[in-house]
Amino acid sequence: MTSESETPSNEALKKGIHRDVLGSAVIGPFRVAIPIVGYLFLVPFIQQTAGLAVLGIWAQMRSLYELLSMGDVGFSIMLSREAGRDRSPEEREAAKRDFNASVRFFFTLLIAFQVLIFTFGGWVMNEGLDWDAHYNADALLYSLSIFVTAVIVQMISMLYTSILAARNDAIFVNAVAGFMPLFPIIGTAVGVDMGYVLEGFAIGALIGSIVRVVVYRSRVVVKHGEWHNTPGHLPLRETYSHIADFMKRSWRFYSLTIGTILNEPVFRYTMGVVIGAEAVGIYAIAHHVISAIRMFITAGLNTLMPGLAVFHRTNQRAEAIQLMRMSEILLIAAASLLYGAVILGGDYLYALWLKPEHVPEGIAIVTFYIAFWYLITTHNVPFWRYMQASGNEGAIASCLWLHTGGILLLIPASNFVNFTIEGMLIWWMAFGLLSQAFFFTTTERRLNCVIETVRHPSLLTLLPALWAFMFVGLGFSLFYGSSFPAPSIVIDWERFAVAALLFAAYGAVVAWVLFPYGKDLVERFRARKARA
User: Fold this and answer.
1) Phi then psi for 456, rounded to 5 degrees?
2) What pTM was computed for the model?
């Protein structure tokens, strides 16, 4: 048995990675369940109790998380790649210094943001946004200060999660993360009931962030003493020169992060400029549904990149290919079944959620385009992680920025083309497909892994069935008039029977593909139980 002070063998690393990836894939989706359910509960609760304007302020404050998270200039994702269990003592010391420098950098950000808030925050919120017309000005200021503190503390907690993920302990991360959103949700609910919506939200978020840091740090100390006891002393006077060096090494990750955060909001902004707010509203409703499905599917793959990084560093190419292939099969199976359900019965979903009279006309075709696009990008997730793991994050950032640049071209193009929402989505997908072609070509050229991963009976069976199912599903939806304007929650049993047959036929293919993998897992479990 390998002691913690020694570098684990390749076999021990392999078992740890596979166990962590599989466990995270099972637990991961549940970490997004509470935020999704909480959001669906809080929106009508706030609107009916505090009013639409307060709901808007709350939503805008929530959106600050993504904006402020850009302060993590690639530090956390860089650590998840560089702090693995396979690293030498010298490499661990270097990563520990990076960790300590990152913590100090985030505390500096916290001080800077607090100065900005108390210097300019009141003017921006009250004069610029006119929030004080709907909420107490002092309460706004202090709520914003508390929430920004919560976000920075959560960014520090992400450094600890990166260490845990790098050391194949992401199952614990996912299990804990699933319950952490309860703090801001409960805080908001209590605040709404007491008449202090934003204060309750901010305090709940801060308590949740502090709990995250305490729990994750305790896990590192108790379970990963090798990392915790690694010397990483960094004199205070050297902090900012070290941060500058760390930024030089992580700027490609930062470019990728910024591109990921901005891509979808840029498209919304462009749509608003070219078509108008109503089109943005239709897109936002459909996108919320499909992105929630994507979050649910991919949430368990946060440990995939650290595991692939270990395989890449230790020259275990066959293991990396196998891990990507298994991830690809599971992702495609889950994504296609869930997206297929939305395509085949999206009008019922929207009618139940929004009420039939509030469902926008034409949302079905918008839903299909968005589902189609996200299904394409689901294909690239394992390869995306492998490119990051192998130090090729700059290339995938270029792919992302290519897509964003194509979206911005919609604005000048609108001077010559009278775009509809469908036309904009086709343009969006065209440039997306171009960026995807560039991505897969670059990945194959640099890592020679795409064809080898896909060239397997499981995927060669699943992929054609998948796209046949998607296009038949689109034809089905159009044939049965799933484009509104008159959605109903009354079930059309003929339509339901045809949809059930389509779903069952494709589900049988998915089950046949997954059966050998499930059988193998059962045999491994029985063997482990027998040894125990």
Assistant:
1) -150, 140
2) 0.72
